[in-house]
Amino acid sequence: MRCPTNTMPITLVAGDHGTPLLFTIRDSSRAAPGRVLDPRNPDTWMPYDLTRVAAIHVPIRPVDRSQPPRTLTAVKLSPFGLGFFQMVWEQDLFATPGRYEGEVRLEYADGAVETVYLRLLFVVRESLQ
Fold first, then answer.
1. What CATH number corresponds to the domain at position 49?
2. Whole-prediction pTM value?
3. Confidence of residue 16 (pLDDT cuts 50, 70, 90)
4. How many domains does the chain have?
5. pLDDT value, residue 7
6. Range of the structural domain that residue 37 is part of
7. Residue 1 has what pLDDT?
8. Are 24 and 47 in contact (CB under 8 A)?
9. Could you tell me the sign of the dihedral formed by the alpha carbons of 89, 25, 77, 8, in that order?
10. Is pLDDT at 35 greater than 80 in this prediction?
11. What is the DSSP secondary-structure string of the chain?
């Protein structure tokens, strides 16, 4: 399972906390319907079905580990079979410019946890104001 949006940094400005970020989780080992699987092209990967997922958590911390992770709760979006979820970040999460990393953790009602292997990278620049 891979989250293709994390192949490049998500760029933000310090203090941003507006529009939720939308993500899609896809399974890189299976082809999407009507597609030929290409390991280098996330558009050909099967969307990951989030129907059985009870909660999605996204721990985020500075890359230099100067602070402990803060865990955000994400919301899965219907139809759940398309692997969509959105993350709304807290107002002060990216208050300081720098590089941050996060990971996506799927938690199931039976207690099972599945973590997306690739990390999210956030690059936050200083605001001009």
1. 2.60.40.1220
2. 0.85
3. confident
4. 1
5. 61
6. 4-125
7. 45
8. yes
9. positive
10. yes
11. -B-GGGGSPEEEETT---SPEEEE-EEEEEEPTT----TT-GGGEEEPP-TTEEEEEEEEEETT--S--EEEEEEE-SSGGG-EEEE---TTTT-S-EEEEE--EEEETTS-EEE-SSPEEEEEEPP--
